[in-house]
Amino acid sequence: MPYLPSNINEMLNSLLLQGIAFNNRYSVAINTPRVFFTNNSAETRHLSIRCESITIPGRSFSTQPFRYYGPARNMPYEPVYAGEMTLTYILSRNMQERLFFEKWMQLICDPTNYKFSYYNDYTTDMVISVLGRDDVLLHDIQVEEVYPKSIGDIQLGYEKDNEIMRQDITISFRKYTSIEYQAANETYGIPSDLGVDMTQFDPNRFKKNNSSLNAVDNTIRSV
Description:
Elements: H1 8-18, E1 26-30, H2 41-50, E2 51-54, E3 59-66, E4 73-81, E5 84-90, H3 96-108, H4 119-122, E6 124-131, E7 137-151, E8 166-172, E9 175-180, H5 214-222
Antiparallel strand pairs: 1-6, 2-5, 3-4, 5-8, 6-7, 7-8, 7-9
């Protein structure tokens, strides 16, 4: 039987002690592949700033049924990664974000003779970082063997007045590794980005008869 919090105080304590992760606190860093021959840190930083959205990839296991006696068991035999992710960029006036990936794809496959480069030359690594409210690094997802698989089309139209132009890029990858960080100024394992002095935290300071969900909402907004 799953454990359920007995009252609102336990939920409040959990929010205060463990904090909350937010979808809009992240950064994306793409290492320049060897096929570019140069490493322009300003360009990769610009791409990180212009990345409006990205999906943290998932993974699973391939399974097959195995029966020795009685009902079959699904036994895992192979790790499976999502293999693709989509990045959305807000385009500059010169569309340099799109041009970066156009150049990358041209270096993967020569547009004149259609010959492909070596795999290790055009693949690189990418790091997706999850940040706290005060930009403390909390979690890294290191994505390996990355390269652009497709550049999405952009629809133009006279009726799209004052709409921001965005570019979808589909990235192919082989696998990823998750790395968890412990902030240097954490106390008792409590994240420092809560904005609360947890050394003075008294879990009994909440009234046990308080059943209002507004207390939870106010706690979330203050985190």
